[in-house]
Amino acid sequence: MNLLVVKALLWALLLGPAAWLGFHVYELIYDPTPALGPLGADPVEYIVRFLGEWGLRILLLSLLLSTLARRLKKPVIIRVRRLVGLFAFAYVSAHLVGYVWLLAEARWGEIIADVFDRPYITVGLLGWVTLLPLAVTSTRGWQRKLGRNWKRLHQLVYVAVIAGVVHLFWLTKDGFEEVVVYALITALLLAERRFKGTRRT
């Protein structure tokens, strides 16, 4: 399949969750009926969590693409990984903005206190901070400038995905099944990489 077609399909698929959320936010704002909609009883909390979970899912997809490219010996798959990784960063950044402006209402004193007093906020911020340099240096130009250090820097993605799973675990009050699935997928992907490295030594 043509690479441009694949990228176009990925754009459509990865924009899908944001489009769904945007539609229901619009519906919530302009529909005066009091019936409980898909955003639940607390739409603000739902929106922030929705964005964070999709950021984690897409981040896991980016790791899976690397595994598939190596296992299937299809390096062309790597050419769409950057797009997926940038989408993951976009969703995680939207999650952070949602927390700051919707949940915390930009009360910066409380936000700073949360970072130091609430571990799930601390580890969530750590995940975003580790993704930031990866997004900035994701271009071929940066890859050429950094050389071998580019790959070393981009190993921070493992820190980001672990931080994302831990962040979600600490946020979850009941119904841990979904978090367990994310944790198992993360463990399998990291174990596969570890096994690959051991075989080469």
**How many helical stretches?**
9
Proportion in β-strands: under 5%
Mean pLDDT across all residues, rounded? 91
Q: What's the number of structural domains?
A: 1
Instruction: Report the structural category.
Output: mainly alpha
Main sheet: strands, sense, barrel: none
Question: Element order, helices and strands?
Answer: HHHHHHHHH
| Helix content class | over 70%
Low-confidence stretches are none
How many whole angstroms does the radius of gyration measure? 18 Å
End-to-end separation in angstroms reads: 36 Å
Q: Count of DSSP E strands?
A: 0
Sum up the overall morphology in one term: globular
Could you please describe the fold and organization of this structure?
The chain is mostly helical and 201 residues long. It has one domain (42-200). 82% of the residues lie in helices and 0% in strands. The chain is built from nine helices and no strands. It has helices at 3-30, 43-71, 78-103, 108-117, 119-136, 140-146, 148-153, 156-171, 177-200. The radius of gyration is 18 Å and the shape is globular. The model has no long low-confidence stretch (mean pLDDT 91).
Give the SSE map.
Layout: H1 3-30, H2 43-71, H3 78-103, H4 108-117, H5 119-136, H6 140-146, H7 148-153, H8 156-171, H9 177-200
Helix pairs in contact: 1-2, 1-3, 2-3, 2-8, 2-9, 3-5, 4-5, 5-8, 8-9
